[in-house]
């Protein structure tokens, strides 16, 4: 079970909540001849929350989540793969559930790819037909890390397509607040520092690193913020100059001396003083 709503941008949250609202008013939709959303395609890099979205939708709907990793079922005997996939699809169509077809690109490749054999192309055709005919009682989801590999016809078959980008600073900060706990989440300077060093990372990587810091704190008998600052010190040198200045100012606000900030960020003390004065004027 998910303890709280995941940290998503509005462009992700809105279409997912739309699906929930449609199911809550499905009878009204059918009365006017409109079917609720039956299928969605999730695209984005690994770790950005596609599988989490499937879990969240299943939880909100109160339906079981069935997952089929298409890359795992691919066989050198493609006829066997096709049979296995059809069995799963037939089962899922018979129960009210959320079915997630993960790694969709493992099967639904472009049919004009001359390197693919005829059996795989036929399997793609069957998959497209299944998407078209998916029953209203269930929800079919598909996820891919490589949308460029998909057959163009695949895109048209889904009722909705949701792109999962890497989280921006606002989403990173929201995720950090969820992971840090109420007390640490109130430390705005700490949030500023962590957001800067986590910029450009996926949800999965951010979660992994925060959990690693918690484990380090427990094993080494440190405060969690001490373990987090150790991680910051390791990464701050990889940031661009403007980001290091932002982190440097936040580190001073957290109580680090100018000498420490210089050692961590490489910023000269003169530069740091200028940044502090600039920050003081803005505040």
TrEMBL record:
CDD domains: RecA-like_protease (cd19481)
GO MF entries: ATP binding; ATP hydrolysis activity
Domain of life: Bacteria
Domain AAA+ ATPase intervals: 36-168
Pfam family, one: AAA
This protein's UniProt keywords: ATP-binding, Nucleotide-binding
InterPro entries: 26S_Proteasome_ATPase, AAA+_ATPase, ATPase_AAA_core, P-loop_NTPase
Family: Belongs to the AAA ATPase family.
Designated name of the protein: AAA family ATPase
Organism of this sequence: Melittangium boletus DSM 14713
């Amino acid at each position: 079970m998910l303890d709280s709503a995941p940290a998503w941008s509005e462009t992700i949250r809105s279409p997912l909540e739309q699906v929930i609202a449609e199911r809550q008013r499905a009878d009204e939709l059918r009365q006017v001849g409109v079917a609720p959303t039956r299928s969605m395609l999730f695209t984005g890099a690994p770790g950005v929350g596609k599988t989490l979205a499937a879990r969240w939708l299943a939880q909100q709907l109160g339906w079981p989540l069935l997952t089929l990793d298409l890359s795992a079922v691919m066989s050198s005997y493609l006829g066997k793969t096709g049979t296995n996939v059809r069995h799963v699809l037939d089962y899922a169509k018979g129960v009210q559930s959320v079915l997630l077809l993960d790694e969709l690109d493992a099967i639904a490749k472009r049919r004009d790819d001359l390197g693919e054999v005829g059996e795989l192309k036929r399997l793609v055709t069957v998959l497209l037909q299944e998407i078209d005919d998916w029953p209203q009682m269930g929800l079919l989801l598909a996820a891919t890390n490589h949308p460029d590999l998909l057959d163009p016809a695949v895109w048209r078959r889904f009722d909705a397509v949701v792109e999962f980008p890497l989280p921006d600073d606002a989403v990173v900060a929201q995720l950090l607040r969820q992971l840090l706990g109420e007390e640490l989440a109130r430390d705005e300077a700490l949030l500023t520092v962590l957001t800067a060093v986590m910029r450009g990372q996926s949800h999965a990587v951010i979660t992994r690193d925060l959990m690693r810091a918690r484990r380090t704190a427990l094993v080494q008998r440190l405060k969690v913020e001490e373990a987090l600052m150790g991680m910051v010190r390791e990464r701050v040198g990889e940031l661009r100059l403007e980001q290091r200045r932002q982190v440097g100012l936040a580190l001073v606000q957290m109580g680090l001396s100018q000498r420490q900030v210089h050692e961590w960020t490489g910023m000269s003390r003169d530069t740091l003083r200028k940044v502090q004065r600039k920050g003081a004027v803005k505040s």
